[in-house]
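Retry 2 of 3 after timeout on previous attempt. Resubmitting C-alpha cells to design endpoint.
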C-alpha cells in the first residue's frame, strides 16, 4: 500500500502566504546539474536539491489542504531559458482531517535549461528558491543558489548524476499502455483503469493537480478485478461542481514496482469517458 505520513500542521496556506520569506531553518537548498559541463546548443538538466531535517517536509505543486509549492526564480545569462519544474510524485502527510502532499528527507526538482549555440567560457546558473517547511509548525524558507559550469564540446555525468537517475524513476510518464477514463458519480469521481496485459495492480492513489476538485482526506477505494478496475475519488464538497477534466498523477503499486502515470482526461457525466490518456488520443489522430 502507498504510505501516509502523520504530522501536525499549525500553519495553513492562507496564513503562510502572509508571512515574509526567512532564511531556511530545517531545509538546505543547493543547485546541481546532471552533467559536468555545458555544451553549446544542447539543453542542460539542472535541479534544485532540498534536504530536509528529520520530521520536516516541503510541498508538491498542489500542496493539498495546506502548504505552498516550492518556487524557483531563475537568474540566467542572456540566451538561456529555464523550463517548468518536473515534479516527482509526492507522499501524503496527515493531521486529523488535514491532508497535504509533499516531500520528506530529500527531493530534487529537475528543470531543463535551454543553452544557446553561442555559449562559451564559464556559465553561472543561479536561482532564488522559496519554500514552506513544516513539522509541528510551518516556517517560510528561502535560499540563493548558484552553480558555475565550464562550456565544452562534450560533457560527462556529474557527481549528482545518480540523484537525477533516482528522481527520473519518480517522474510521471504518459500512460501509453494504460486505459484511463473518468466519469462523474454522486459525491465522487471514478477513474476506470485498465492496466497493460500481465500487470497486476495492488494499490493506487491519485494526486490531483487541480485544486478544489477532490476531498484530500477522503479514502480512495480501488474496486474490481481482472483487467477492469475502478478507483473511486471523493469530491471536494465545496469545490468545483462539474470539472471538465481530471488532471493529476496516478501512482500505481504493481507486482513490478511503483510507477507514476500522467492523467489528463475529460470527465464524462453518468457514462465512461471515451478518452483514455493524452498519448492514446494522439495515436487515434
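Retry 2 succeeded. Sequence:
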Amino acid at each position: 500500500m502507498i504510505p501516509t505520513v502523520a504530522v501536525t500542521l499549525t500553519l495553513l496556506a492562507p496564513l503562510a502566504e502572509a508571512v515574509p520569506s526567512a532564511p531556511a531553518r530545517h531545509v538546505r537548498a543547493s543547485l546541481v546539474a546532471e552533467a559536468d559541463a555545458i555544451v553549446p546548443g544542447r539543453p542542460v538538466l539542472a535541479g534544485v536539491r532540498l534536504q530536509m531535517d528529520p520530521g520536516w517536509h516541503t510541498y508538491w505543486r498542489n500542496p493539498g489542504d495546506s502548504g505552498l509549492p516550492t518556487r524557483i526564480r531563475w537568474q540566467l545569462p542572456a540566451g538561456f531559458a529555464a523550463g517548468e519544474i518536473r515534479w516527482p510524485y509526492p507522499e501524503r502527510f496527515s493531521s486529523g482531517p488535514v491532508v497535504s502532499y509533499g516531500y520528506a528527507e530529500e527531493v530534487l526538482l529537475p528543470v531543463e535549461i535551454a543553452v544557446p549555440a553561442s555559449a562559451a567560457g564559464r556559465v553561472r546558473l543561479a536561482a532564488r528558491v522559496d519554500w514552506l517547511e513544516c513539522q509541528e509548525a510551518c516556517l517560510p524558507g528561502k535560499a540563493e543558489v548558484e552553480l558555475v559550469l565550464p562550456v565544452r564540446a562534450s560533457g560527462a555525468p556529474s557527481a549528482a548524476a545518480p540523484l537525477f537517475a533516482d528522481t527520473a524513476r519518480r517522474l510521471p510518464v504518459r500512460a501509453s499502455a494504460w486505459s484511463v477514463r473518468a466519469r462523474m458519480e454522486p459525491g465522487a469521481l471514478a477513474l476506470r483503469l485498465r492496466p497493460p496485459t500481465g500487470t497486476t495492480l495492488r494499490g493506487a492513489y491519485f494526486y490531483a493537480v487541480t485544486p478544489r476538485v477532490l476531498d484530500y482526506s477522503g479514502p480512495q477505494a480501488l474496486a474490481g478485478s481482472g483487467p477492469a478496475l475502478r478507483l473511486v475519488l471523493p469530491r471536494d464538497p465545496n469545490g468545483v461542481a462539474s470539472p471538465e477534466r481530471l488532471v493529476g498523477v496516478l501512482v500505481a503499486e504493481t507486482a513490478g514496482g511503483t510507477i507514476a502515470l500522467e492523467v489528463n482526461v475529460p470527465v464524462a457525466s453518468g457514462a465512461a469517458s471515451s478518452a483514455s490518456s493524452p498519448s492514446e488520443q494522439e495515436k487515434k489522430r
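Attempt log closed. The domain at 4-168 is CATH 2.60.40.1250 (Immunoglobulin-like).
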